[in-house]
Amino acid sequence: MEEFGVNCGRQRKPTTRQLVAKTMPLVKKYLDGRLNLKIKANCRYSQNTYLKLLVHTAINKNYAEGGSADFKHKCNLDGMIYGFEPFIKNCPDGDTLLYHIKKFNDDELYPVFDSINEGIVQQAIRAGTIPPMVTVAIDCTDVPYYGKKTDPMVVGKKPEKGTNYSHRYASITIVEGGLRYTLKTLAVSKHVLISDVVSALLLDASKLVKISHVLLDRGFYTVDVITVLKKHDYKFVIPGKMTPPIVDLIRKQDVPAIKRHKIGTRSKFVYANLVVVNDTEGKKCAFITNIEDFNAATALCKTADEIFKVGSPQYSKRWGIETTYRVTKHDFLAKTTSKNPVVRLFYMLLAVCLYNLWQLANMRLPESPVQKVKKYELPARIFGAIVLGCLRMFDSGPPKWLIAPYSGSGTTVAG
């Protein structure tokens, strides 16, 4: 079975060599030479060296300074074991790395990482792993912040991990079946309207894929957000807030049911459909949607309920976009104590790119057209180590035990 140009036969689980052979062209195409820091030609360290340090720091959830020291040690050790050239004297320290990152601003960062994600998504589409129409979810995630609330881009939040403040990021992610590609991520400040964030995310995502339905958290249950969704003419589903009127309406309705509902105040309101269904625990719950067809509305709300788990104690741990956030922050997000929001945004956007690349490398085509897209069970942490190994091979060449797989044409990139 040919997958992204790599012939893995009919093995259920590919070998390490096959995984490296499949990952290397993806790393070469979407990371190497694409993530350029603002360094001059006479700089002591190359772009690839900085990229290796960034990936190493990210997959080990380390800080810049600690990641630099650890990377120097491991490179020297691997050089003795696998025959790599030692990099003990050829690795920048953490302060140097942060110095170059701080040269960017928000407007410069987004195009760089958007182009990488765009290429990853387009290759997934060409490979047939993303369907023509997809369901997407929009949500926000918080990264705890321990500085002052007056620092740039800091927002308030519920007490968690010893702080009431955080840096907030909004994302739009494909949640079609087992697919989890993050299409766009934006930093959110306390001065930005959430409806403007939703509009920007939908605009950028629509350039990559065709959106069939949009699923949003209960936190997006506002007149402005619903107005934006209706303006863009997207079919949406939002869990209804359990206000007294909605609670009373749910109590009187048999399930499933759909009712016209007015949201907002007398001076500012919007109309939508209130769909009443049973949640995963058999209790009544309500969704707000603009879907007019009764069967389609109730069917999608039941599907969305599997993601949102409304009425369940695990609502905050819904497996859709929350799973993406969990893996992105747990396996690919570097740590930092910097107050500079550009550094934090850089780390988050890099984590999203690594996550999307992991999704692409993890997909394999079905053996027949009627089967769904399958996944290798490749842990994110192992994938990160493979990416780092591929970046080092671009400088030093593959070690002796890995030379054989590259003697043929197994590293070509399809599409």
UniProtKB/TrEMBL annotation:
Pfam families on file: DDE_Tnp_1
All residue ranges annotated as the Transposase IS4-like domain in the record: 134-357
InterPro entries attached to this UniProt entry: RNaseH-like_sf (IPR012337), Transposase_11 (IPR002559)
Name of the molecule in the record: Transposase, IS4 family protein
Species per Swiss-Prot/TrEMBL record: Methanoregula boonei (strain DSM 21154 / JCM 14090 / 6A8)
Organism superkingdom: Archaea
BP term (GO), one: DNA transposition
Molecular function, one GO term: transposase activity
